[in-house]
Amino acid sequence: MGENLTMLKKIVLSLIILTLFPGPIYGFTISVQTARTIADKIWHNECAGTVTGLTNWKDGESFASLGIGHFIWYPAGTQECFKESFPELLKFLQHQGVKLPAWLKAAQHCPWNSRAEFNANFNSPEMQELRQLLLKTKNLQAIFIAKRLERTFPDMIKNLPSSEQAPIRKLFFQLARDPKGLYALIDYLNFKGSGTVTSEAYKHQGWGLLQVLQRIPADTKQPVQDFIDSAKAVLTARVKNSPPARNEAQWLKGWFNRLNTYKK
To answer: What are the sequence ranges of the domains in the chain?
Structure first.
């Protein structure tokens, strides 16, 4: 854990580089303690703060959900509308000097082809090795998500009319200056994506971070609470538009509980 903390101090969480905007450079910083707190909160949200929760395959889904952020990993031949993120995490960890197990480094796809096969191997040496790796690198996983926020935000708004870009940019940094708001931004991006991936939509309506920000009043005086209310509306619409066979209503209460953690 000490090695991770040292690396945490060295790497990023200075999110200074939103330079794709015309005009002045915008930026914000995250303290080491805030980064560790956000990592623990995301771990609790996705995995109930348990080691076993770091490797999961939800009922009704066709992919594994791994790490504190439940990053998606598809088996060979499987691809849904949700963006795969676990391979990107592995590349990031390697770039930060983390040594991966040989079998994981060589894997092109999730080696378990179904939920049944995944659960049958839940206590295998490979699965236990994977969980220990994900436990040791949980702070780096939080950095991975934060860097994704840093990298994604300019792309989120670049195709919007200029009249809409300015208030969303202002709102984004209003949230980012507050530790609660920053947690909301980072967690929701990991939780439901950016809202710019065209495949992540039902009936042409997305449910990502962009859609949440677009619903918040530009003159908000309570940005975190308004973020929560907007996200609940967006996710309610997602459930309404989702294919009935997915039974997404079963997850809505849990999603709302997660959103409520943003004000704590």
So the answer is: 1-158, 159-264
